[in-house]
């Protein structure tokens, strides 16, 4: 029997790639103030900046979009969408939003505020920003294993259960807005969280009367890892695993731009009627009427179909295998990356890759820019540029890890694109001594990595 796991689709519509020379890329990077977020997408050959909103939609999704009902209130597309979300989450109240962070903004505005705490395995950047913007504090309680990039473990996204309980007691349950577990753990290497960990975290929260939420962006990838790695789940379907996982939660926030194959969209799913009512009140003034929430009817259709398609095990097998494939190529060359490979991305360990660049010169950004210069590949720094803070005396408080994420859009690139990416990473690794660090010349107070301007350090 053939061993190769193939892309479980064929291609009906194609987009040309844009090639540039190294000399052009040097100019482009300078014009973008050495910040990959400021590069025009047309100047990128392989865009691994994000897996968010970048999926290729299926012919079924495009067909469903033509069925989109654009009625302001009570659109049939909403009811289709609502049924698809309920089938997975089992939650009672479903609120569409234009993307994940809109869900966060609404529910965190209502549950957050000064003196409140949000506990998590690791909060994603926009999630943390929405918490802090409300005046509350976000606390990451990742398990020790998750902090060791080079040491493999099956569920490095787990929350530290002892720390969770200790923190609840220390801060006082009444001051905890919620515990929110990110699946898979995007800022910590795209690592999965086990069912056992979710069940136990939920139990601790229940015991103390703390709400338990899931940041569900990549729920299907997480469920596939559970199926593969956790005892008792091998013969369960992804839908069954998802149903159990969400049954432990009081609510979830979701960006449909990830595990729903949509280019835009998100939702909040809740069980609490009063919180739902309050969320809908906010929704009406920020996103729109509760049956469209900032989306067109056709977007709701695309999400409904995408949620079904994402649970296809042929797809998930290919998805996770294609990530492992790139990991094997890098491993063979001794390139440092977060192990095992995550569900949606490979995370290079920039601190180990470029030990000669100190953290205050942003080794992650230096590596990301080197990949662009070498091969036109765009990636994103997940390190001290994204998460660094300043102490009272103005010194940089670095992030826990200095990572470079190469996120793979869903159903977009083929195996030869991935081969090319691995070759460029290997080329850059061979020349790593030539890479220099950067300093910031402009930064915004929140989410500074999006708009920061930098210059190379001599
Ligand atoms: N939570 C997680 C874990 C995410 O990865 C993201 C987005 C969000 C929430 C917010 O969702 O973008 O729809 O508002 N992550 C993207 C990324 C942007 O590149 O990882 P959104």
What would the keywords be for this entry?
alpha/beta, Aspartate Aminotransferase, domain 1, Aspartate Aminotransferase, domain 2, 16 helices, globular, binds ligand F0G
Please, could you describe this protein's structure?
The protein is α/β, with parallel strands linked by helices and 458 residues long. It has two domains: 22-51 and 313-456, Aspartate Aminotransferase, domain 1; 59-309, Type I PLP-dependent aspartate aminotransferase-like (Major domain) (Aspartate Aminotransferase, domain 2, 3-Layer(aba) Sandwich). The protein has helices at residues 22-31, 59-66, 76-89, 100-111, 125-133, 161-171, 195-208, 219-229, 238-247, 273-286, 297-309, 313-332, 350-353, 363-375, 384-387, 415-430, and strands spanning 46-47, 93-97, 117-120, 137-140, 176-182, 212-215, 251-255, 266-270, 345-349, 377-378, 380-382, 389-390, 396-397, 403-407, 438-442, 453-456. The strands form five sheets. A seven-stranded mixed sheet has the order 2-8-7-6-5-3-4, sandwiched between helices. Strands 9-14-11 form a three-stranded antiparallel sheet. Strand 5, helix 7 and strand 6 form a beta-alpha-beta unit. Helix 1 packs across helix 14 and helix 3 (76-89) packs parallel to helix 11 (297-309). The structure holds ligand F0G. The site of ligand F0G has 15 residues, from helix 4 and helix 5.
């Amino acid at each position: 029997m053939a061993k190769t796991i193939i892309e479980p689709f064929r291609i009906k519509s194609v987009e040309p790639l844009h090639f540039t020379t190294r000399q052009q890329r040097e100019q482009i990077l300078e014009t973008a103030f050495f910040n990959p977020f400021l590069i025009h997408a047309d100047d990128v050959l392989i865009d691994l900046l994000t897996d968010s909103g970048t999926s290729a939609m299926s012919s079924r999704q495009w067909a469903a979009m033509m069925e989109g009902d654009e009625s302001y209130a009570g659109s049939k597309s909403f009811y289709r969408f609502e049924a698809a979300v309920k089938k997975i989450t089992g939650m009672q109240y479903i609120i569409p939003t234009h993307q994940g962070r809109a869900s966060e903004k609404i529910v965190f505005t209502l549950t957050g505020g000064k003196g409140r705490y949000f506990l998590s395995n690791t909060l994603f950047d926009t999630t943390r920003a929405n918490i802090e913007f409300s005046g509350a504090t976000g606390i990451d309680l990742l398990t020790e294993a998750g902090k060791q990039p080079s040491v493999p473990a099956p569920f490095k996204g787990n929350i530290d259960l002892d720390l969770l309980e200790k923190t609840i007691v220390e801060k006082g349950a009444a001051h905890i807005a919620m515990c929110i577990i990110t699946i898979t753990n995007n800022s910590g290497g795209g690592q999965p969280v086990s069912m056992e960990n979710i069940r136990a975290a939920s139990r601790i929260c229940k015991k103390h009367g703390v709400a338990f939420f899931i940041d569900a962006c990549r729920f299907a990838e997480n469920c596939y890892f559970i199926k593969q790695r956790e005892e008792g789940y091998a013969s369960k379907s992804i839908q069954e695993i998802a149903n159990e996982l969400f049954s432990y939660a009081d609510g979830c926030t979701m960006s449909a731009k990830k595990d729903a194959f949509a280019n835009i969209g998100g939702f909040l799913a809740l069980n609490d009627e009063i919180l739902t009512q309050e969320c809908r009140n906010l929704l009406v003034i920020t996103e729109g009427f509760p049956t469209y929430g900032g989306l067109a009817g056709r977007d709701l259709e695309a999400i409904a179909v995408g949620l079904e398609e994402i649970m296809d095990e042929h797809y998930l097998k290919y998805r996770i295998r294609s990530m492992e494939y790139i990991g094997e190529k890098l491993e063979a060359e001794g390139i440092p990356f977060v192990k095992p490979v995550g569900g949606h991305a490979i995370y290079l360990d920039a601190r180990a890759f470029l030990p000669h660049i100190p953290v205050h010169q942003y080794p992650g950004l230096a590596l990301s820019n080197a990949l662009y210069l070498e091969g036109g590949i765009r990636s994103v720094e997940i390190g001290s540029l994204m998460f660094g803070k300043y102490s009272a005396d103005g010194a940089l408080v670095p992030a826990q890890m200095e990572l470079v994420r190469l996120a793979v859009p869903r159903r977009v690139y083929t195996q030869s694109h991935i081969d090319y990416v691995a070759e460029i990473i290997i080329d850059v690794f061979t020349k790593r001594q030539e890479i220099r660090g950067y300093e910031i010349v402009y930064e915004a107070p929140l989410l500074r990595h999006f708009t920061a301007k930098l210059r190379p350090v001599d």
